[in-house]
Amino acid sequence: MAAPAFRSVAADSAEVAALKGKTNLASESLGTKIVSFSDEFFAEASNLLKDSEAVFLPEEFTDRGKWMDGWETKRHNKSYDWTIIQLGYAGAIFGFDVDTSHFTGNHAPVVSIEAANASEEEVRAGKAQFSEILPKVDMNPGSHHYFVYEAPTAAYTHLRVNNYPDGGIARLRVYGQVVPQALTASSNGLIDLAFVGNGGRAVACSNQHFCSPSNLVLPGRGKTMGDGWETRRSRTPGHNDWAILKLGVRGCIDKIEVDTRHFCGNYPPQVTMHATVSDEDVPASDAKWTEVLGAVPTTADSQHVFDTTGARDQAFTHVKFTMYPDGGVKRIRVYGRAAN
Q1: Contact 170, 146 (CB under 8 A)
Q2: Residue 311 CB: number of other CB atoms within 10 A?
Q3: Burial call 269-297: b when 16+ CB within 10 Å, e when fewer
Q4: Which residues of the chain have pLDDT under 70?
């Protein structure tokens, strides 16, 4: 079967800007992990999945050689190296960033990617059927390589990254959309309609100076202040900052959780939430927003759970979370009932 049609695009292109608005299915924050690999002599394959940008430490060495922030295999492979990645959530793929940052005389010269939709057991037993979705492409040293599909792929659970014949890759970003195999219910019996595992994602915001609103829908409560959403300080009277989340499933909203974990001197004093219905990723500028949570205060480093204050039996596709005047929040949970 032929690989889906794709094209290579420049880092500063509109296509890449759109790509980065999708979910990175290969993010370690989603629970993505390495299942197996042919070799990781110099540097671990798990580095491919790090959310942080790759770094270079000139003086850092290990007992096997130069420390590198990526996946690096030993030299002189007579065939090729590979690693199999299990995505945290199955998803349709819109494109890739194969990043060889800091690998200059030791980068992987050629890469290809295969994909499968299978259980972990099938993959480990060698029974999964992998199909090529990115044929062999040339890599440059120390560069980001962006590839965009003409249309999203089918939903996949695993990727096999092939490295010809050997060398290093710093990061792999797999931009796509989570396709839930089943909706994940929360402990309160409701569904977190905005949760990334249920297909939710951030699609727009007023500001993301310190960190992205995409973090708002991630699993867990994070590790540091750096894995929430934080805006710059406002000096303008009456200012507010907002983020729009596209719900993974259209639904009625019953409860909202605002988690300010790790935000101690920079949490928002007050927040609201509104909701709307739209067929677009980002609702139109004249969209009608309905208040589902009136202005409520937040406190430092705390989980706040609020009952919605309006339109509880109306189904929505998007929510707009607003902070007054600015600040940082770790997670937003939008608990409710699926409309379908």
Answers
A1: no
A2: 15
A3: eebbbbbbebeeeebeeeeebbebbeeee
A4: 1
